[in-house]
Amino acid sequence: MTVISRSYEEGCIAAHALDLIGDRWALLVVRELMLGPRRFGALRRGMPGISANILTRRLTELEAQGILTRRMLPPPADLAVYELTAAGLALWPVLRALCLWGAAQPGHDPRQFISPAALMLSMAATWVAGAPDLSAGFDLAGDSFRVTIAAGRYHVARAAAEGADLQFGGTPNALAAVIYGPVPLAGHLSAGTLAFAGPVDLGQRFIDGFALRREPATPPF
After folding, report:
1. Where do the structural domains in the chain lie, given as residue ranges?
2. 0.85 surpassed by pTM
């Protein structure tokens, strides 16, 4: 049995879940690992507000709780990476629900730091379809991702942006403004706020497939 150092000491299953992932930074560590293994330094770049000591503590706790695992890359790398277990990956619906809920609450400041993984996961959470089958590559502050839309399904992975039907480049904050802001893609291209390759009309259809705000889910009572 996992030993939990801080517990609500309740039989409520929601309280049990918070015992495991409710500490500050825990879910953001999960966010940064949701799209694949990362080294310690890469995790810190994705969460610039966390100290090395706190990150080490959260990684140790999440590993003890079965949320993530640590492994060594084979030679010549000989470096440790962290990756989510099946239990950690199963937190995606939780992150998705938090994205949609948070988007509907006042006070969000999109000018604050957005990590590449955070942007890509928010896009996966807010996609509502509409675009034809395509691939879209993203080069975001040194991290590369590829989104594939096929047969009505949305898939995102860490992969090279080159060769995709659409290719976007820039900072995550700049790309977030393109995806979610009111200015059309052509306006951003005219302003020179991002790098883009591909048909502009197809790029706009892709962007139109995201909805930051949704009707809230109806409670079952």
Report:
1. 13-90, 95-207
2. yes
